């Protein structure tokens, strides 16, 4: 089987230090599935992990994957050989930039029947991040009627996470306001279901006032948390909640949260997995819900760009595109043609 | 009527700048009640407010009060003349260090029938702070069975807030671990219902390990948040929640919250009131629940020290005792004898 690895931290201007190598197909144990990977997507998190020291070399990056179950560990109960599945896996395992991969069944969902491998690959990591933020952090109700009248602001609505978060929040009854600045990102965010798209080149407090809104219940930051920290506190209601998925560059004044008794969470989709939380199976449940909504035509996949073939050049080029921070929706790499019979 | 005011910020080593003065008894409007104050309690928040510039002078400090409704505004629906009530009011109004006071009915509870004025005065501010932290921040269930197996750590269990938070958390099914170091504070915290009392002179991670516990679901800090910031993150489970009521002295690294996706809230009991939140009536509801639990013998008042008479000397001495940070339970000042017929 083929994998794309790298031996050390590198920046993209050092050139392409990813390389292709052969490794043994592993055996699944206990709750593990062995998956033949059909398509993957590349996330900003991949580019951040590339810049942290590997615990083993070569390190295989990649989270999102779609594939077919080849064999199962002896404690597996949720899936069978031949099942088509999707997942974003775990940083504890080698990643999805390879033709076969192990994954814990509790982190896996059944692939939506009405999506291609490429379309399905766009969803797991961003869908799980959005689901955890909405249901675990904001604790919105699973009953859309109970969320009526609540408003969510998503900073950077057209990115991968913003795109699926908008759809899930709308389906669960929230009013959704996003930010974008280019014509194409504004249009994309509206297509995803945003009720209002603010121009983040202007001050968001003023932008929001133009729509007669002073404050929102929830703020979800998917871009430059330092820049928006004080603005988010200005924009959230008393006892509201702010979540970010973007690490800070600087220390911050937590006393600013006091006057409105604001709740702040640094959402990290792998917290449950890394700390082996008892409720890891939430990832299976969230993906199952996304599959159902996709099959009912409520959510749409967020893929906007597809590369053909698992090559080190494609992985390198994908990292370049992601680091440019202008990506709309999701970038997918398809493995199927070349490796269908490996 | 008599009030204890001060005209400027002062530290206690400048001497006693509180003074007694006469003012007109005000008229209640709309949702306001006019209350004849019978007893008050003094909180650490009073000493902090004393050190912020007054927006009007003389400024009357004081939050907690127990008293009797004298007259009501024309929109009042919850209370009548003659009702015995308790509350911790609002920083928007002049405080409770006076013989008559206005308060918004939505912030008020009926005084527990089985408590004296002094006993009842110990409860509102600390009870509301604890209720908001448990129900709004930690979002524990109102059904104790659903909280079974969840653990709360309270840093400084024997203080005013810690004492009532322990009782409420126990009544709602949580396991409660507190910290204390002196023999008398350990005993007090155990009397309040703590299952385990850790010695905060030692490192809390080690202290907790001695009880075979690695992590807890919720951490509530009522003492020196800077000192405990990293320790609280170490001690909380993945996707757990930390709340503090103590302002930071320094900026902090919010990225430390990421690995476990920890939620952090700066609890401030007056956020709803200051920002005129639509659900201000929560304070009435929380006090009503506390009254019921007190009358059922489930909670006990936390008063440990009573001063007699509303005098500037008593207010000054109370601030000295609070600033010493060794207070167990609550300090109450009784007004009843001197002013019953004013």
TrEMBL record, chains A, B:
The keyword Oxidoreductase applies. One of its GO terms (cellular component) is cytoplasm. It is found in: Cytoplasm. Keywords: Acetylation, Cytoplasm, Metal-binding, NADP, Oxidoreductase, RNA-binding, Zinc. One of its GO terms (molecular function) is oxidoreductase activity. Residues 15-333 form the Enoyl reductase (ER) domain. It holds the Pfam family ADH_zinc_N. Its main location: cytoplasm. It comes from the Bacteria. Homotetramer. Belongs to the zinc-containing alcohol dehydrogenase family. Quinone oxidoreductase subfamily. This is Zinc-type alcohol dehydrogenase-like protein.
């Amino acid at each position: 089987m083929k994998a794309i690895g790298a031996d050390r931290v590198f920046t993209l201007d050092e050139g392409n230090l990813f390389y292709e190598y052969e490794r043994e197909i592993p055996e699944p144990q206990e709750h593990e599935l062995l998956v033949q990977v059909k398509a993957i997507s590349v996330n900003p998190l991949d580019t951040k992990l590339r810049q942290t020291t590997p615990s083993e070399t070569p390190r295989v990056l990649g989270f999102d994957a779609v594939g077919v179950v080849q064999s199962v560990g002896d404690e597996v109960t949720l899936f069978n050989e031949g099942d088509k599945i999707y997942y974003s896996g775990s940083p504890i395992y080698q990643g999805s930039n390879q033709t076969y991969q192990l994954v814990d069944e509790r982190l896996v969902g059944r692939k939506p029947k009405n999506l291609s491998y490429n379309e399905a690959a766009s969803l797991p990591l961003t869908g799980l991040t959005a689901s955890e933020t909405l249901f675990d952090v904001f604790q919105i109700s699973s009953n859309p009627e109970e969320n009526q009248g609540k408003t969510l602001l998503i900073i950077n609505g057209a990115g991968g996470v913003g795109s699926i978060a908008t759809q899930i929040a709308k389906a669960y009854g929230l009013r959704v306001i996003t930010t974008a600045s280019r014509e194409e990102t504004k249009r994309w965010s509206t297509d995803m279901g945003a009720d209002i798209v603010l121009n983040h080149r202007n001050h968001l407090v003023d932008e929001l006032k133009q729509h007669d809104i002073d404050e929102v219940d929830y703020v979800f930051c998917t871009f430059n948390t330092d820049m928006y920290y004080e603005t988010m506190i200005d924009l959230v209601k008393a006892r509201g909640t702010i979540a970010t998925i973007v690490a800070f560059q600087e220390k911050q004044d937590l006393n600013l949260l006091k006057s409105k008794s604001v709740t702040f969470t640094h959402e990290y989709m792998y917290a449950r997995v890394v700390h082996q939380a008892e409720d890891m199976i939430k990832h299976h449940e969230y993906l199952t819900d996304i599959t159902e909504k996709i099959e009912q035509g409520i959510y749409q996949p967020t893929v906007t760009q597809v590369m053909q073939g698992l090559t080190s050049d494609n992985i390198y080029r994908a990292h370049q595109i992601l680091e440019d921070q202008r990506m709309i929706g999701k970038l997918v790499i398809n493995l199927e043609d070349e490796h269908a019979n490996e």
